[in-house]
Design a protein that fits this description.
Elements (H helix, E strand, L loop, with lengths): L1 E12 L11 E12 L12 H16 L2 E2 L9 H13 L5 E9 L2 E5 L13
Parallel strand pairs: 1-3
Antiparallel strand pairs: 1-2, 2-4, 4-5
Length: 124
């Protein structure tokens, strides 16, 4: 069973080496959190949506909403933000399956906790 919940937050950032995004600007992000688990026969749920909302609010939204993201993540690209969000949620939500972050309505990045999401440097 997959359970998905969406959240929104607004934040500003700068991407220093990007021709356009090096200027201070902001986004209204859409965060999509998906859990995977079995239905608890006692509650009939994988997780209570209120419980998930509280955890996401405490672990992520309270820190990112209306923040300057460069003070939280050194290079706050969507890719690095989604890894940061995953790391904040993974311990608190063991059923975490996927985190998707939309910087704009038509573009997003997804992360499923892959052990090594970074490219290895090329050898000379």
């Amino acid at each position: 069973m997959f359970v998905t919940s969406e959240y929104r937050f607004s934040a500003a950032h700068q991407i220093p080496h990007h021709p356009l995004c090096k200027r201070l600007h902001g986004h209204t992000y859409r965060l999509v959190v998906t859990l995977r688990g079995k239905i608890d026969p006692r509650t009939g749920m994988v997780i209570d949506f209120d419980e998930l909302r509280e955890v996401v609010g405490r672990q992520v939204l309270s820190l990112l909403d209306h923040a300057f993201l460069n003070e939280i993540v050194e290079l706050p690209t969507s890719e690095l933000l989604v890894v940061w969000i995953w790391n904040r949620l993974a311990e608190a939500v063991p059923q975490l399956h996927e985190v998707r972050l939309y910087e704009q309505p038509e573009t997003c990045v997804s992360y499923r906790g892959e052990a090594e999401p970074f490219l290895q440097p090329e050898e000379p």
